[in-house]
Task: inverse folding
């Protein structure tokens, strides 16, 4: 098996190297063929591995590939841990990645238009893009397949690097290169916590290996560490690791980079900033469940952060007019749901939502991209409308994605989101009640913003200019085939996987839940099949809230909008101060820009001018040089050049010396 | 058989004699002399390879020892040898010098053979510093190093080179005279100039503290540590590209090497007593200098400050041993700290060397180092942009590059001593990324900044070769640091044992301040 796992990881890397270094020689076809072959092989093998786990009771694999370093008796290995959780992630990542590769052929076909004349960067941009997304797939696989913390951190940062390269892909755009630096730096704030968490693990467990650390974790359940006057070691480790997850999975207050990351081309928004990379934090916490289970404080922190993100980021989605930003805020909100599930110890539900979300959110992004292609790269939903008539495939698949997103009964998102809300409802950790309220109202908000966008884009009168309208047409097959391929799991995957994942504990030993924290067992106890689950869900408040949101959205943006096309703007104007707060995104960006960016520069300038230049160089270094010069200036007067002066000095000196010697 | 061949002598004197020959041949046939210089540099590197290939990593003592009387009346010897600490640094020296020669190939038009010759002589002297086991021989090489560097900056430097050279010379010279006094004092105690004899010489606490301070002045200036770092940005700004590369990649490491070869083993009691000072200065270097680097307008100054911050990790890793023992009662993690500092030194040699070469590439074309004069360079120089982003990421400590390895090890080790030490050290993840990527954003990315940028030509083959090999080295250590660490660790383990044994006269106890 080891060779198969190696192939799964290295095939995309090989594709990336070929497309990246030889893109100019092999041309566009060569580049996308090489990368798609690599990712395709990887996806096929991953699905095969998953099928082995589902139907053949495949044993877990945990083994090293090579020893990275041995220092001070501590072994740092590169190795794989492939269990059911990993297999599920591998299949999701490689499948979505393959779809995005295909889609990119269509989306980036006319990328030359995005570059100024004569820019050499625009020459092989198509090939470079394929190289990056394959490199991303490699990095993400290294992350999910790792069996140790060091390699996890490698994958973690490597996906961050590719994200940086892709957000700033159109490097001549100021907004893009601002966004990519912001993304990297905000993620680094998370990684700052993450690496301290890893260091704590290194110190107390003496190993980077998951299996060893997890086995030893219960011994440290009551260990205290002398930080902040003494806290529980497990709480400190888990919160530090979770700070890393907050960066990568964009949880408040480290969420600020994700909306800006929409500056990148749409295929990567789907792949990296919706389906896979941003869920790395969710995966990581699920993987670390044996640690998180030992700290109720950390779980509570996770749950509250998740619920706050889920609700408040969803609200911002209501006032966005850029089609990609609406989907981006929706992603933030859904990541909040997943995080809240982790806090409620419903790791399986978090991972389940991660998977369903990967399909329907990738679908929504790719559909948005399809609309953007048709609209000649105008992304403002106020300029769209009526697209269902010209883009039937995009329309239907986007509708499917939206229904899955708002948890419409029977769609994949219904099962996963309902399970999360249910689990939080039954959780006993501090803040669970608060979280449940936010997540439930969040269901209303989700439906409202999703269908606001859906109606404004696909229904009503066309509002684009005449030129764009006359050129509207459905996008080519390389775009629509991935849409269809993602729409199918968006409908069905929940129905088929809810029972094994949540009820029958298919993930098995990959996840550890303390019996007293087990919030999903309530679900299992009342399990009477999918239909009963749906009916049960339809009796609960979150369902009615979601339907309320859908109804309200229909009333405003389908019915009233027909009569008054300005209704959107009028509502936002009436909500004056609230709109203002939402449009300012609660002021996070301004605050960061002023306090952290501005403050950092100010501090740097101050330290440099007063510390280095005035004190050290001015006072000490040049000061002592001046002092020496000054003294020398005085002493110079002794060197008069007159012989008799010297003679007298010698006589005085000789007399002095003689006196000393005689006296002694 | 091979081990008996005087490899070290060859690696020291081949470049020095070669350099003299290159200079003597003058600029009449500069194409030929440049080629000779390159051949000498490559041969020196080849001659240094056996030191690594036949190195016995399990043996903690000195290898390739050469010992002959030099000035018998004073007991001064020609005494050379390497261990796991000095051997990698010698290879780094012989490796980097090749690229300095290549980098100067076309761009140095004023007296090119003198330029090449100066670097070859410099190379031999630096190898001498790393391999000398006689204190006077060491001091001889240590001071001799200043002369070629003084000339390199003074002759081929920028407009303000006179200020920079004087500052550089006085700063470093000021540091080293105290070291000479300490060495002579120890000679009178040990009746020998052998550094290894100094290691076993019992010393009272007062003597140890004075010696420690004398060494600190010498090594802190070289590293450089806060607050004696201000010569470095000025020296870098005025130095020609090759001078900056040698300065950053190798000369700074001599300070770090000094701490391991002299301060820690010779004055363990004083080191244990004063380690708080070093840790504080190291952390200031990481945080304070990180902020200062952020606001630099000159690319070379920015990279110079970045070097100081990265060297803070080196000194932090070297001196964390005592805190670890005090905190945990065990020395577990101390070896990782010192190894991490060593890896950081080697890695910084590649990365900072490459970053200065990158600035050199731009400077050769535009004659400006100001960030504001650039913008959108990648539009006309995509290969350069790729390398610049790669080395910037390595400088920010991205895993998979060598920049990560040392920082990771030092953070892991430091955490054992104190959470807050590790906390402050780890801020480099944010700060180094901030100052490096902000520079990249303003120089490499964006729309084409001006007509001059629009007319830029991408890297030529020589430049691609230079940066490509350094990138490969950076990646190699990032992907598989084991061979490097394996070579060093036995020596470092030995050192960690050594520094825990008190050298106070008559004492066989652990170092005083480590006792519970």
Result:
């Amino acid at each position: 098996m080891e060779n198969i796992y190696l192939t799964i990881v290295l095939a995309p890397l090989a594709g990336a190297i070929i497309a990246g270094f030889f893109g100019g020689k092999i041309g566009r076809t060569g580049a996308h063929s090489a990368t798609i072959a690599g990712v395709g092989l990887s996806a096929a093998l991953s699905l095969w591995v998953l099928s082995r786990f589902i139907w053949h009771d495949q044993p877990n694999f945990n083994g090293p590939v090579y020893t990275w370093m041995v220092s001070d008796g501590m072994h740092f290995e590169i190795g794989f841990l492939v269990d059911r959780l990993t297999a599920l992630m591998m299949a999701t990542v490689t499948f979505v990645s393959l779809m995005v590769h295909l889609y990119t052929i269509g989306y980036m076909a006319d990328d030359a238009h995005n570059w100024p004349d004569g820019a050499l960067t625009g020459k092989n941009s198509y090939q470079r893009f394929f190289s990056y997304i394959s490199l991303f797939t490699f990095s993400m696989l290294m992350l999910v397949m790792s069996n140790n913390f060091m390699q996890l951190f490698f994958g973690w940062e490597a996906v961050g690097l590719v994200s940086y390269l892709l957000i700033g892909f159109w490097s001549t755009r100021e907004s893009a290169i601002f966004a990519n630096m912001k993304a990297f730096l905000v993620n680094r704030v998370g990684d700052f916590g993450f690496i301290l968490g890893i260091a704590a693990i290194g110190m107390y467990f003496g190993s980077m290996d998951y299996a060893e650390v997890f086995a030893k974790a219960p011994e440290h359940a009551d260990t205290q560490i002398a930080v902040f006057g003494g806290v529980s070691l497990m709480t400190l480790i888990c919160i530090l690791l979770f700070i890393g997850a907050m960066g990568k999975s964009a949880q408040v207050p480290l969420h600020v980079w994700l909306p800006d990351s929409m500056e990148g081309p749409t295929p990567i928004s789907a792949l990296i900033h919706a389906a896979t990379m941003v869920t790395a934090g969710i995966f990581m916490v699920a993987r670390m469940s044996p640690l998180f289970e030992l700290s109720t404080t950390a779980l509570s922190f996770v749950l509250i952060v998740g619920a706050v993100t889920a609700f408040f980021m969803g609200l911002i989605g209501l006032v966005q007019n850029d089609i990609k930003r609406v989907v981006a805020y929706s992603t933030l909100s859904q990541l909040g749901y997943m995080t809240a599930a982790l806090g409620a110890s419903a790791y399986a539900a978090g991972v389940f939502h991660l998977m369903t979300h990967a399909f329907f959110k990738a679908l929504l992004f790719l559909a948005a991209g399809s609309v953007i292609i048709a609209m000649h790269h105008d992304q403002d939903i106020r300029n769209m409308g009526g697209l269902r008539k010209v883009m039937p495939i995009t329309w239907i698949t986007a509708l499917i994605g939206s229904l899955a997103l708002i948890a419409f009964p029977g769609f994949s998102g219904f099962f996963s989101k309902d399970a999360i809300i249910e689990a939080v409802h039954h959780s006993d950790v501090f803040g669970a009640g608060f979280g449940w309220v936010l997540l439930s109202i969040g269901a209303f908000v989700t439906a409202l913003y999703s269908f606001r966008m859906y109606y404004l884009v696909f229904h009503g009168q066309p509002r684009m200019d005449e030129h764009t309208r006359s050129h509207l047409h459905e996008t080519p097959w390389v775009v629509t085939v991935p849409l269809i391929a993602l729409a199918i799991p968006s409908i069905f995957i929940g129905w088929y996987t809810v029972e094994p994942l949540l009820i029958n504990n298919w993930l098995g030993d990959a996840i550890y839940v303390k019996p007293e924290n087990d919030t999903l067992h309530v679900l299992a106890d009342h399990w009477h099949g999918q239909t009963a689950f749906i009916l049960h869900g339809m009796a609960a408040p979150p369902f009615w809230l979601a339907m309320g949101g859908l109804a309200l959205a229909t009333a405003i943006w389908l019915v009233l909008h027909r009569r008054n096309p300005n209704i959107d703007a009028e509502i936002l104007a009436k909500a004056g101060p609230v709109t203002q707060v939402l449009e300012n995104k609660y002021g996070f960006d301004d605050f960061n820009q002023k306090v952290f960016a501005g403050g950092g520069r100010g501090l740097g300038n101050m330290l440099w001018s007063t510390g280095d230049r005035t004190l050290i160089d001015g006072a000490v270094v040049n000061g002592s040089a001046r002092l020496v010069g000054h003294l020398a200036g005085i002493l110079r007067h002794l060197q008069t050049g007159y012989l008799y002066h010297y003679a007298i000095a010698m006589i005085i000196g000789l007399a002095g010396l003689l006196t000393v010697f005689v006296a002694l | 058989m091979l081990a008996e061949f005087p490899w070290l002598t060859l690696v020291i004197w081949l470049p020095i004699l070669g350099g003299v020959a290159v200079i003597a041949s003058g600029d009449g046939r500069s194409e030929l002399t440049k080629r000779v210089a390159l051949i000498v540099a490559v041969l020196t590197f080849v001659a240094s390879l056996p030191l690594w290939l036949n190195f016995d990593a399990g043996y903690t003592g000195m290898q390739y020892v050469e010992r002959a009387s030099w000035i018998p009346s004073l007991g001064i010897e020609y005494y050379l040898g390497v261990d796991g600490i000095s051997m990698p640094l010698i290879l780094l020296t012989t490796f980097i010098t090749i690229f300095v020669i290549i980098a100067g190939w076309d761009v140095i038009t004023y007296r090119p053979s003198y330029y090449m010759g100066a670097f070859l002589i410099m190379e031999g002297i630096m190898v001498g510093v790393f391999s000398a086991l006689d204190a006077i021989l060491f001091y001889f090489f240590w001071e001799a190093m200043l002369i070629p560097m003084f000339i390199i900056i003074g002759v081929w430097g920028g407009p303000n080179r006179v200020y920079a050279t004087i500052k550089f010379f006085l700063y470093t010279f000021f540091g080293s005279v105290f070291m000479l006094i300490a060495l002579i004092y120890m000679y009178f105690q040990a009746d020998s100039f052998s550094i290894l004899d100094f290691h076993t010489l019992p010393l009272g606490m007062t003597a140890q503290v004075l010696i420690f301070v004398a060494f600190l002045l010498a090594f802190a200036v070289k590293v450089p540590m806060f607050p004696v770092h201000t010569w470095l940005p000025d020296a870098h700004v005025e130095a020609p590209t090759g001078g900056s590369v040698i300065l950053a990649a190798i000369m700074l490491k001599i300070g770090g090497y000094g701490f391991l070869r002299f301060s820690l083993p010779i004055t363990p009691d004083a080191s244990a007593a004063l380690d708080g000072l070093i840790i504080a200065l190291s952390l200031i270097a990481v945080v304070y200098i990180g902020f200062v680097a952020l606001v630099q307008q000159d690319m070379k100054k920015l990279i110079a400050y970045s070097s100081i911050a990265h060297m803070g990790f080196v000194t932090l890793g070297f001196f964390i041993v005592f805190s670890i023992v005090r905190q945990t009662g065990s020395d577990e993690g101390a070896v990782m700290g010192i190894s991490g500092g060593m890896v950081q030194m080697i890695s910084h040699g590649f990365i900072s060397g490459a970053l200065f070469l990158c600035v050199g590439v731009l400077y050769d074309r535009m004659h400006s180092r100001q960030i504001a004069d650039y913008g959108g360079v990648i539009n006309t120089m995509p290969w350069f942009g790729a390398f610049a982003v790669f080395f910037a990421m390595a400088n920010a400590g991205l895993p998979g590059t060598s920049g990560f390895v040392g920082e990771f090890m030092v953070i892991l080790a430091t955490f054992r001593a104190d959470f807050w030490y590790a906390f402050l050290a780890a801020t480099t993840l944010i700060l180094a990324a901030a100052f490096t990527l902000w520079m990249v954003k303003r120089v490499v990315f964006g729309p084409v900044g001006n007509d001059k940028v629009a007319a830029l030509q991408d890297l030529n083959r020589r430049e691609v070769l230079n940066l490509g090999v350094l990138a490969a080295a950076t990646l190699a250590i990032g992907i598989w640091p084991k061979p490097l660490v394996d070579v060093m660790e036995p020596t470092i383990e030995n050192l960690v044992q050594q520094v825990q044994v008190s050298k106070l006269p008559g004492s066989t106890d652990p170092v005083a301040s480590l006792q519970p």
